[in-house]
Amino acid sequence: MALMRSHPYTVVDVFTREPLTGNHLAVFTDASEFDAITMQRIARELNLAETAFVLPATRQDCAARVRIFTPAKEMAFAGHPTVGTAFVLLEKKIVTSNNGAFMLEEEVGPVPVRVEAGQAPLIWLRTPPIREGRCLDSALCAQALGLETGDLLPVRPQLLSAGNPTIIVAAKDKAAVDRAWLDSSGLRTLKTDANESFCVFLFAAAPEGAYSRMFAPEYGVPEDPATGSSTGPLAAFMMRHGLVAKAHGTRFVSEQGTKMGRRSILHVDIQGESGADGIYVGGHVTPVAEAVMTLSGR
To answer: What is the count of structural domains for the chain?
Structure first.
């Protein structure tokens, strides 16, 4: 006889202080009964950009283990699920921070988290080591994005990864960013190997830092409202090409998701010379719903 089991989860909006904006996330704080196949099916059922599943850590230096799924696949690392899950674990007192800092175990490895206290805490993650990949032809990238070559800065796009391979493309202005679109057929034109998987991150330098959009059709996410895993590589790319305004010192913000009606603000903190002491990506988190999923089991 099948038994019905209830599994509570929390929905939060990440990188925003305003409900129903930012990037939504479901967090199952006790996923010990789920295998990977069930986690993927749940993520597909909820159809959010990502769903996070919390498990006991396998490392003594980590407070919890987190597995992250888009509707289409598991991610080795993702930014808004890290920030959102950290917030939920702290709010529910499942995790207690040591002087405002702890680590979460993800497929990419341990991810340091720190909390900047305030009326609305700012939660930061340290970007994992960034790996450099190939540079791409600007004209090819412009065409894939439905733009003209003249809509891009004279800076070659590059594939960078902090656990989530991302092609970073620099546009001349916000208007060009808003005109762009990338579907699966456009994505295929950028591949050198049919088995490659990556997202495409388009941005324009702005007085406050950057104005951005991210497309990931192969991940089941046509457009992502906020992409913390790509924002560390964005910061590295902007520093390398002199696109970070000196007036901002070591901090700036990336505005993302505005075109799709889910405005997100991602804070960037570059520590040390050219990020030698870490590139941190942070944001606010807004609770939206508490829910229960009921599944049959034996």
So the answer is: 2
